[in-house]
Inverse folding.
């Protein structure tokens, strides 16, 4: 159970194995939902996401954050995967 300390900080227990498995399942589920939505997105929506990924970089006075930079790369990969899905769906619709 999470508790609040006197200074306002939180003591949050580490997730156990079952919770980690559930989080992974939910993450995979969300990734597939997002891919499905992106595969039907308009060119304008795709371009907005691409621009957002390009904007992810540290502020001039801030230090680099590798995980954030990896996330930007993942955004681009999602767009590529969604484009492949859209092509596959388009081919299936014609058949």
């Amino acid at each position: 159970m999470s508790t609040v300390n006197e200074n306002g900080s939180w003591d949050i227990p580490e997730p156990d194995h079952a919770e980690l498995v559930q989080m992974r399942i939910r993450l995979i589920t969300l990734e597939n939902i997002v891919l499905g939505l992106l595969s039907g997105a308009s060119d304008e929506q795709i371009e907005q996401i691409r621009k957002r990924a390009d904007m992810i970089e540290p502020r001039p006075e801030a230090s680099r954050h590798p995980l954030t930079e990896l996330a930007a790369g993942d955004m681009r990969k999602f767009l590529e995967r969604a484009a492949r899905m859209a092509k596959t769906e388009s081919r299936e619709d014609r058949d």
The chain has a mean pLDDT of 89. The beta strands are 3-4, 10-11. The helical segments are 17-39, 43-55, 66-94. The longest helix spans residues 66-94.
